[in-house]
Every structure is written in structure tokens, then in C-alpha cells.
Design brief:
- The radius of gyration is 26 Å and the shape is elongated.
- The chain has about 200 residues and is α/β, with parallel strands linked by helices.
- It is about 60% helix and about 10% strand.
- Helix 2 links the parallel strand 2 and strand 3.
- It is built from five helices and four strands, in the order αββαβαααβ.
């Protein structure tokens, strides 16, 4: 999403609060305790824990609404009685580690796509060279002509598939990578508030 008008910027400011210190958009999450950050099935140490899928999905969807040319922050609200500096520091590290892990998987996926594209390019070139250099049949037989046409068309299909992989299949993944890179640069804050009984 790109700000094309001031109206769009105003609409977004109705969805997200803005940190007046730096004009960053704020993605806010209410928690009862630090444990609600994490996937219940994950038995790893806190630093390595996976974020709860619903929380991760919410944060990702919220981030996708904020244009890439704007910065955002993550604010987590917890009851004041649960404040624990050690858990807070570990939780901040775990949150960043989750985004680093996502970037790692995205890098692997992009590498697979690029390797596939290179393979298709090589196959396409081989097929086209074969179609170009194979001698024509003296009798101009139908089967041989069909075979040569098949090789020629196959070469162009491989090249198109390489183009498709490189520009189309990887486009959305590269876009997601930018969003996760922005998360790594985002400030994570824990805010504590009194809870009325």
C-alpha cells in the first residue's frame, strides 16, 4: 500500500496509534502474561520459542497494512503485577529470533526458486541449441519434423518457466522478506498497566 493521498494516511491513523516521538505506527497487543507470546506446543528455551500462531498472524497482518516506507513498533501490554525484567529481555530476544527464522526460511525458498530458474534456463538453451544444430531430415519425414518442433517449443517453454519463476513466483516472497526485515528494525516495547479488580 502506498500513500497516494492524505486521506489514506488519515484512515490508517484511525487504525493504528502513532508514537509521537518518532512518527512510527504502533502495533499493540494485550497479554495476560509473557507465556501468551509463545506457542503452547513449543518446549524450547524462551529465547528460541516460536511465537503463538495467532499472535504471529495478527502482527504480520497488521504490518502488511502499514506501507513499507513507514516504520512501526510493537507494544505489548501486560498487567503491572507480572512485570519481570529478565522475562521481558528474553521475550524481546525471542520475538526478534522469530523474525530472523522467518527470514532464514524465506532465503532458503528464494534460493530454491533461483536454482530452479537457472536449471530451466540451461534446459531451454540446450533444447534451442539442439533444435538449431540438429541436421534436417533428408526425407523431411513427419515424425522428425514433429520431434524438431517439440524440441524448439520445449526450449521456449523452459525459458518462459525460468522467467515465471524469477519474476512471478519470487515476487511475493521478496515482498514478504522486506516486511520481515522491517520487523528486525522495529522497536519492541513492553508496557505495564494496573489492572482493576
Amino acid at each position: 500500500m502506498i500513500f497516494s493521498t492524505r486521506q489514506e494516511a488519515r484512515e490508517l491513523s484511525h487504525i493504528f496509534n502513532i508514537n509521537r516521538e518518532n512518527d512510527n505506527y504502533v502495533i499493540e497487543v494485550n497479554l495476560n502474561n509473557y507465556q501468551h507470546l509463545y506457542n503452547d506446543w513449543d518446549a524450547s528455551s524462551i529465547n528460541q520459542k516460536e511465537l503463538a500462531p495467532e499472535l504471529f498472524d495478527f502482527i504480520e497482518r497488521a504490518s502488511n497494512e502499514i506501507p513499507l516506507n513507514k516504520n512501526h513498533e510493537l507494544w505489548f501490554y501486560l498487567p503491572e503485577k507480572n512485570q519481570d525484567e529478565r522475562k521481558e529481555a528474553k521475550s524481546k530476544k525471542a520475538i526478534k529470533n522469530n523474525f530472523k527464522m522467518e527470514l532464514y526460511f524465506i532465503k532458503k525458498k528464494l534460493n530454491r526458486i533461483y536454482r530452479k530458474a537457472v536449471t530451466y534456463i540451461m534446459m531451454g538453451i540446450i533444447f534451442l541449441l539442439a533444435a538449431y544444430f540438429l541436421p534436417e531430415s533428408a526425407g523431411n519425414q513427419l515424425l522428425y519434423t514433429l520431434f524438431m518442433e517439440g524440441i524448439f517449443i520445449g526450449g521456449w517453454v523452459f525459458l518462459w518457466e525460468a522467467f515465471s519463476q524469477f519474476f512471478f513466483a519470487s515476487h511475493e516472497i521478496r515482498k514478504r522478506r522486506k516486511y520481515y526485515q522491517r520487523f528486525l528494525n522495529s522497536r519492541v516495547q513492553f508496557k505495564y498497566q494496573e489492572v482493576e479488580d
